[in-house]
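Q: My labmate handed me this sequence with no annotations at all. I'd like to see what the chain might look like in three dimensions before we decide whether it's worth expressing. Could you predict it?
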Amino acid sequence: MPVIHASEAVVHEMHGARFVSYAVPATGSKELAAWRGEIPAGTRAPAHTVTREEILHLLTGSLRLTLDGATHTLAPGDTAIVNAGTTLSVENPTDAVATMWVTTSVGLEAELADGTRIAPPWAR
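A: Here is what I predict for the chain of 124 residues:
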């Protein structure tokens, strides 16, 4: 069973957020990808539609998620299930960093409103 130590996690940055990648095929996972998302205060990520289900579990701070037009506020301990085909936007309207744990299946992609497709390396 592979163990990924915190010092071995790979950090990616996009749209003002940090994605600290732990579980991907390169680290031994066969089906799942998992990372810690760090969303700085005042950050609003662009809306995107996901190709695979994602589970977002808020660890610290507060986030505002919009899922297919319905807005929800998450507090620490709250979990959101984002089904494949859902349009998601994430916003941290507070003055503190929010962190979440995210799990999905390997190969997740996202499509922005302008049609740009993103294949995030933290899900590959």
